[in-house]
Each structure stands twice: as structure tokens, then as C-alpha cells.
Amino acid sequence: MRERETVAPEGMSESEQRQFMDVALAESRHALPDCSPNPPVGCVIVQGRDVVSRGYTGAPGRPHAEAAALLALDPNMDPAGLSLFVTLEPCAFVGRTPSCAQAIVGAGIRRVFVGTLDPDPRNDGAGIAIMRAAGIEVRVGVAEPEVLAFLAAHLSTTPRS
Ligand SMILES: [Zn+2]
Questions:
Q1: What is the CATH number of the domain that holds 120?
Q2: For residue 131, how far is its CA from the centre of ligand 1 (angstroms)?
Q3: Residue 58: which domain range?
């Protein structure tokens, strides 16, 4: 399955990737209960080995985790030097909020690490495909067991908002 191909992002070890996903996972716990019925997602943006921005999914109609982290980012930072970690596949679709996959492309981020794919049929790999088509290096499945232990109960194959 192409979405799960492992890429080797320069300079960041597997254990470092898991550590940053753990920070994103901790951030995602702040999303409950306001985010419902959307899943509680967390995101951190990393420059070198430093977390430079973080976000979690707000109430419906408010920014998703990725959009929140991008909004909180210092606009003077070079996006090409940043890595984004998000617990769930960024959304490919426009609902009450814009597509996060498109927002990540638009921000100029070049490396993205995803905890697990979103089974929502409007996504289900489509968010990954948007980013890869734009030349972003995407790795799926970082700390996936830990992410799913918290997130799985909130995921659905039924479209949400
Ligand atoms: Zn989104």
C-alpha cells in the first residue's frame, strides 16, 4: 500500500520521529470534548529538533489541528526547513473548514509525518495523495499503535464535518 511506504527524512531517527508524534498526541488530548463530532487531533511543527508551533482541533467550524499550528507559526520561519507531525491524516476535503492537506501544501512545508490514515471515505489516503502530488515527503504510521490507542474510538468510516 503506497500510503505506508517508509521514507527516510534526512537526519531524523525513528525514535525522534516517535518522540515528536508523542508531543502531537499529548496536544490532541486538549481537543476533547469541544472538537466532537470531529476526531481529537494534535499537530506540532518542528524546526531542527525544536517544537516551534502546536495546535489541536477546535470546535466544529474552528481550525483543525494542522490549521491551528500553521496559524500559530512565526511567519518569518522558512517553511522548507520545517517538519509537521500530525496524529491523523490531514483532511483532503472542504467541509466547514478548508482542506488541511491543501493548507499544508500552501504553507510550503516539505516534510510531513502522519500517525494514521483517516478512514473517513472522503479522506482515506486522499489527503496523503494531495501532499505527495505537491512533492511533500510524507511518512505514514509514525507511533501508530500509540496514536490509535487514543484516537481509534473517535474515528469513523461515516463522513463527518
Ligand atoms: Zn483538516
A1: 3.40.140.10
A2: 13
A3: 2-151
